[in-house]
Structure of DNA replication protein DnaC:
Amino acid sequence: MRDYDAQRVSGLARRLTGILITRGQNPDAVPAVVEEPLAALQAAEARIPARYRNAVADHPAISAWVRDIAQDGRPGPGGAPGIANGRSLLIVGTTGTGKTHQAYGAIRCLVSAGVRLRWKATTAADLYADLRPRPGHDGERELMDLARCPLLIIDDLGAAKNSEWTEEITMRLINRRYNEMLPTLLTTNLGMADLREHIGDRVASRLTEMTDKVILDGPDRRRALAAERRCFDAATAT
């Protein structure tokens, strides 16, 4: 670069600085970052199934997990935390006790807390269906995308039909996330002994170490809501 080129640039910078000062603007000020958790929450809710778009993670252990993930996240643009390494959750309960509700509620709580969040959610049955080999589909690439995702929800683990192939897929996915210590939310209605039999000892061993176990009990919420609707309809009909 020639000397007079540098002088021209420097002179232009001085003139621009003078203009900003006359307008009452500090040229050295760091631009303020406006957080938009509401917009981020709306974007997240667009990807959440309609039934769970107002879900709230109100179980104490799940709320504590949300706080830990939010606090341990790496700072990103504007200082907003992002998902880093962390513990996973295994949410166990019989049918209708709110496992899926709590899992999506955790997503909403993280986004509301301002956490920059890239996440994916699937059921175990859909996972195997999507990855099953077929012409024109790169199942290996999709598996690696799930394995590297900062936060992954796997709903109803153990509900799909088991085979050597599904056991291998589960092992590869969980093992990658175990090694990288990536947070994973898993739900199941199986006890640990039945789950171990379904997914294999290697996967069960890793889940035992990488997850905090949360047990949900109580009646089937779906049946309770259906009963309430029936009572309401009967009352309004009289």
